[in-house]
Amino acid sequence: MATVSLRGIYAMLVTPFDSREEIDYGALRAEVDWCADQGAQGVVATPSIGEFACLTNEERWKCFEVVSQQCDKHPGLQKIATVAGTHTREVSQHCKVALELGYHAAQLIPPYYWVPDEDEVYRHFQLAAETGLPIVVYHNPRLSKFHMSREFIGRLCEIPGLIALKEVLTDRHVQLEPLYQIVDNRLSIFHTFRVFTTGLTLGSAGGFINVFALPATIKMWQLFNEKREPQRMELIQNKINEVFMRGGEDNKRHIGTTKMCSSLVTGIDMGTPRSPYLLPPDSALERLKQKLPELQALCDI
Fold this sequence. Notes:
Layout: E1 8-12, H1 25-38, E2 42-45, H2 57-71, E3 78-82, H3 88-100, E4 105-108, H4 118-129, E5 135-139, H5 141-144, H6 150-156, E6 162-167, H7 172-183, E7 188-191, H8 196-202, E8 206-210, H9 214-225, H10 230-243, H11 254-266, H12 282-300
Parallel strand pairs: 1-2, 1-8, 2-3, 3-4, 4-5, 5-6, 6-7, 7-8
């Protein structure tokens, strides 16, 4: 069983599309380069915001290949593949492809569409780990329709090959403190940008971060590791939550909003989501253009 250590900031890559809704692999390569230039420790290919559910297997594997090739141009940049699927056989195929391409780990959400029970989810992760690719558990109950109790996550820690957890829940006292207690350093825990500083306080290993929030999160990570300017770090945390609209998966234009934000922040045209999904109204872009400089100013002081 291969082992790998994950720590730092990992960028969740948007999958760019052209005007015909075909994958723009040139833009995808540019996105990997941009993440490396920002100081990310790694990237995640075809995550939720990378629209994996809208891609064919062949398209996903091509994205794996392109991202892997581009990462190899940046020594030390780790590569993680999102291998989610509705059934384990498909997930295992994704894991094997990623393993052959030299990926360091896979990120996996519980099977979605049908609502599974705990034994089925445990088996899902166990069989995925048996492919030999280290697994990052992705807990996002809004998308998977499966809520992992803290006790169940403790049970998952027993599976060889599970190395980390990405937790999207945000309530410190009800959800996060009990999580850290039951995991007890058996998995590295990562958070989103929404509660990044809270996670650091609790002992997180870093964050899996939407590409548009990468510069600000990397600045917080740097300040934390240099043990300086804690007040500035909290100001950045507050501002990033203000600038990028809340709602997450409850936002009915979630993927379109993500693409809009990513295009503006990176300067790379990510295109529109695949149909039927749409970009948000123009007013959302205008608001972002007005608010983003406030966040950038805090990061550039």
